[in-house]
Design a protein that fits this description.
The protein is α/β, with parallel strands linked by helices and about 230 residues long. Helices cover about 35% and strands about 20% of the residues. It has eight helices and eight strands. Helix 2 (about 50-60) links the parallel strand 2 (about 35-40) and strand 3.
Length: about 230
């Protein structure tokens, strides 16, 4: 299993001082910057676009940027995020007409593709695509808003996805996003997740480093190895 990553979502950051806030959370021990991109079409909210990604890169952010597209259609915006400096680009299979084509488009633009599964979306899309992606993201809330409560059945889906990935025999990150906090991250890690999106739990805390360290202790207690 890959080294565990903590991926704070900038959806919960202070947008008036975004560059400094992202620098602070990375200095506090985070591994990845997570982008929640919403279009007020596929989901009922509107957030950020490629210009914000490009601005963070220009600001000097070197960490991987993990772009979660909650948009439809998908293909139009993929090249823009790739040019803006995205590392991973993941999308919902329901949001595109041709899943395989979109995966290929992400790869062709130099980024690592991922598929995202809503709480009620089955993992069947992985039957013919798992060998093509670098990330599987399990939503543990319904997409569209930050600050929601973790859906417990997501643990079963994480376990199912972990078994598929292990059987494949190549490194594919298994990410979980939605309601992740210090008090439930151990259960998500035990279920098989290795990449943990946490928005309000990190950016809403008074001490980023303390919160991230507590999360790493919980991951380690589940059998992960915490900090690289």
């Amino acid at each position: 299993m890959p080294t565990p990553w903590i991926a704070p979502s900038i959806l919960s950051a202070d947008f008036a001082r975004l560059g400094a806030d992202v620098e602070a959370v990375l200095a506090a021990g985070a591994d990845v910057v997570h982008f929640d991109v919403m279009d007020n079409h596929y989901v009922p909210n509107l957030t950020i676009g490629p210009m914000v990604c490009a601005a963070l890169r220009k600001h000097g952010i070197k960490a991987p940027i993990d772009v979660h597209l909650m948009v439809s259609p998908v293909d139009r915006i993929v090249p823009d995020f790739a040019a803006a400096g995205a590392t991973y680009i993941s999308f919902h299979p329901e949001a595109t007409e041709h899943v395989d084509r979109t995966i290929s488009l992400i790869r062709e633009h130099g980024c690592r593709p991922g598929l995202v599964f809503n709480p009620a979306t089955p993992l069947d899309y992985l039957d013919y695509t798992l060998e093509l992606v670098d990330l599987v993201l399990i939503m543990s809330v319904n997409p569209g808003f930050g600050g929601q409560q973790f859906i417990p059945t997501s643990l079963r889906k994480l376990g199912d996805a972990r078994r598929r990935i292990d059987a494949l025999g190549r490194e594919v990150r298994l990410e979980v996003d939605g309601g992740i906090k210090v008090d439930n991250i151990r259960a998500a890690a035990r279920a098989g997740a290795d990449t943990f999106v946490a928005g309000s739990a990190v950016f809403g805390s008074t001490d980023y480093a303390q919160t991230i360290a507590a999360m790493r202790r919980e991951i380690a207690a589940a059998g992960g190895n915490g900090k690289p």
